[in-house]
Amino acid sequence: MDTTTVPAKTTRLQRGIALYRDHADGIRFERGVWLVPFLSEETTVYEVRLGTRGASCECRDHGYRHVDCLHIHAATIAKAKTRECAGCSGRFRGRDLVEVAPDSLTFFEGDELCRPCARAHDEL
Ligand SMILES: [Zn+2]
Ligand SMILES: [Zn+2]
Q: How far is the CA of 75 from the centre of ligand 2 (A)?
């Protein structure tokens, strides 16, 4: 028997990737804060802040060990995969954004809006 193949402990990054993969729709961005659901209880969320001076999370893993926990990793992935709405500054995935009309009087060419903002500004 080969004793060297001890299963590697999953890293926080791997768990963060899995969390994003399984719960991408549950990760939200509101008022500058990422809301990342618990793995076990999706109705509860951790608040994650991705600041220029480092990230923070409410969970104990981050609070005690000051490491990038799986929530921070999941939020970082969510940030990379989303873009900002020029209307409400919320972050959305590409398929949920629409580009403003080139002759828009309210926004700049190339700006993108989430669907509620696009409807509100008559840009759909
Ligand atoms: Zn956390
Ligand atoms: Zn918007």
A: 19
